[in-house]
User: What shape does this take?
Amino acid sequence: MIDRRRIVATIVILGLVGALAACSIPAGSPSEATNPGVTFTDDAGRRVDLPARIDRIAPSGPLAQLVLFALCPEKLVGLASEFGGDQQAYLDPEYTDLPILGNFYSGTLNLEQVMTQDPQVVVDIGDRKPANSADLDGITTRTGLPTVFIQMTFASMADSLDRLGDLLGADEQADALTGFIGDHLDPILNELAGLDDDQRPSVYYGQGDGLTAVVAGSSHDAVIQAAGGRNVAVVDRDGKAGTAAVSLEQLLIWQPDYLLLTPATLVDEVTASSGWSGLDAVTADRALAVPVGPYSWLDSPPSINQILGVIWLSQVLHPDRVNNDLADLTTEFYRLFYHYELTATQTAALLAATPGW
Assistant: This one.
């Protein structure tokens, strides 16, 4: 004879077990029925509805591309800008062959191409500006895609990487990146933070023809300051850029202790020029090519690439205070941030401008 009370009790117990199992599904589970999404407040103060698990991301521009590439390259559905031939030498073809989506802030972002790649979110990263909210809301209005902004400055890199790791389900990689910062960058910053101006070697950072100066106080100048240098180019910048045109006569008046120059061919041009020979930095072999590959170590864009720039430049300017194994740290940085294993030849080429190397 069937015991109906036992059957009812069994059904109730099974229902309770099922309910408890559903409640225990962790954040980030692919089950949309039990975990449909989250509401995230971004660094522009916008509340954005996002999937609980994010696997497909479009960057808003080159700076976002660089940070997201370091954190979770497998989640990128495209690139803001194409990796050039020189850059490709330091990157896996799996990533360099991604479709080009364009750069929102240069007006080249192709929203149709973005939508074709079917990202779950568009991520913008950088220094907060008044127009951030309206800009990102405009992308959402035109595409239906959620957009988020994450504030990242040189000083906030570790915190911003942690925040992105939480948002994008990349906590383990975020921990590795912030661990590198804590182990190798922070000790240098602490060592050099209290230097007086007279303890800081004067530095000029010239680009292009050499007379396009990176201006003191801009985000492009962050490495010079953090590495214990003093940028001589205390002048008004040209428009929104972090640079200004200067004259050779002004440079001769400044007489910087070090010249940092890019591209690398500029060093040979400067040292062969009679006009530049009046600079002590030139005659004393302190005109140095900025290491580049896949990005400049000082800027372009001013982002996580500057971590290695500080490690390198601090040792150039303050060899008595900073003494790291630059080859080992360069190799480790490229492995963690660019997912690339440098050859010994590549490492030597990158460090060729280092005095005493």
